[in-house]
UniProtKB/TrEMBL annotation:
Luciferase-like domain: residues covered: 2-298
Coiled coil (UniProt feature): none
GO MF annotations, alphabetized: oxidoreductase activity, acting on paired donors, with incorporation or reduction of molecular oxygen
Similarity comment: family membership: To bacterial alkanal monooxygenase alpha and beta chains.
Name this polypeptide is given: Luciferase family oxidoreductase, group 1
An annotated GO cellular component: cytosol
UniProt xrefs under InterPro entries: Bact_Lucif_Oxidored, CmoO-like, Luciferase-like_dom, Luciferase-like_sf
Record-annotated membrane-spanning stretches: none
Gene3D superfamilies the record matches: Luciferase-like domain
One of the Pfam families matching this protein, by short name: Bac_luciferase
Length: 329
């Protein structure tokens, strides 16, 4: 049986309010638990039109209170914006409330525009440069292990510590995860980088002495599954066209309907971009998607597949997750 999980970017469709989009994220998490997914992660974005979640920690407390067993976490907390101690406090609070269920996915992207970055943090580029030190400090606070005396404790200390993950799309992130002996989530859905090579380097250089754990990888893939291949490609058009709209500086109102997406004219260059994006996605009926995900998991040596699904309709999204689960879980 394959391990499957969900990454939710909490997108807003054109027929939704922000409140409705956040409620939809709760429904996705509850459905993921029902279908047998291993974990549900929600992403952090700042002042990006069409994306609802700027504070994963708040959504996780809301979702945790209305689910029972599925692991929940951030995908990712953008550490350069924050002090490691505060991130540890928040994570330990969540782990105390929801024992054995909390993941801390750590990333280093800005998560928004330059203006937002300046509003959130001082000297962001320096904080990115200092990311290895910040991650080390976070690990000390989370696991309550210090080489010096009189270090503050990130209270409360939960019975089961949250599980720290490093997320990324580059060799640098994979090398840092390996050095720290952390599980690694590679975001294939958002990069053209050589994921197989990067994951292989992570596995080969993993520091098993650090936390006495083995290397563990999640591969995050964009996937849309429907009862028929044709219907799946129709549903995918909303996400694909929305990406084109955002590249144009448009799309602030959110994910367009299939009807609207099919009516938008594209340049030759944009049509080529859509084809490239489709090639980086898994789209099809249940049998096709299941076969592709099995092949990808084997090809990348991944321990787990995490799925991102963006459709205009919440019902289509839930059906996609359900069909995939029925084939692979």
């Amino acid at each position: 049986m394959m391990k499957l999980s969900i990454l939710d970017q909490s997108p807003i469709s054109t027929n939704q309010t922000v409140h409705q989009a956040l409620q939809a994220s709760l429904t996705v998490a509850q459905s993921a638990e029902k279908y047998g997914y291993t974990r549900y992660w929600i992403a952090e974005h700042h002042d990006l039109g069409g994306l609802a979640c700027s504070a994963p920690e708040i959504m996780l407390s809301y979702i945790g209170a209305q689910t029972k067993s599925i692991r929940i976490g951030s995908g990712a907390i953008l550490l350069p914006h924050y002090k490691p101690y505060k991130v540890a406090e928040i994570s330990n609070m969540l782990a105390t409330l929801f024992p054995g269920r909390i993941d801390i996915g750590i990333g280093r992207a800005p998560g928004g525009s330059a203006e937002v970055t300046n509003a959130l943090s001082t000297n962001f580029l320096q904080q990115v440069y200092d990311m290895p030190k910040s991650l080390e400090a976070l690990l000390h606070y989370v696991y309550n292990v210090f080489s010096e005396e009189n270090k503050p404790v990130a209270a409360p200390i939960p019975d089961i510590a949250p599980h720290v993950w490093l997320l990324g799309t580059s060799k640098k992130s994979a090398q840092l995860a390996a050095k720290q002996g952390l599980p690694y989530a590679f975001g294939q859905f958002m990069t053209d980088n050589d994921g197989r090579g990067i994951i292989n380097e992570y596995i080969q250089t993993f520091n098993i002495q650090k936390h006495n754990e083995k290397p563990y990888t999640i591969l995050t893939i964009s996937a849309i599954c429907a009862e028929t291949t044709e219907k799946a490609f129709e549903q995918a058009s909303s996400s694909l066209i929305w990406s084109i709209q955002k590249a144009r500086g448009e799309g602030q109102e959110g994910v367009p309907s299939i009807e609207k997406a099919t009516k938008i004219s594209l340049s030759l260059e944009e049509k080529d971009t859509v084809k490239k994006m489709q090639a980086n996605m898994v789209i099809g009926n249940r049998k096709e998607v299941a076969e592709k995900l099995r092949d990808i998991k084997k090809m990348y040596q991944a321990d787990e597949i995490m799925i991102v699904t963006i459709t205009h309709s919440l019902e289509d999204k839930l059906k996609s997750y359900e069909l995939i689960a029925n084939e692979l879980l």
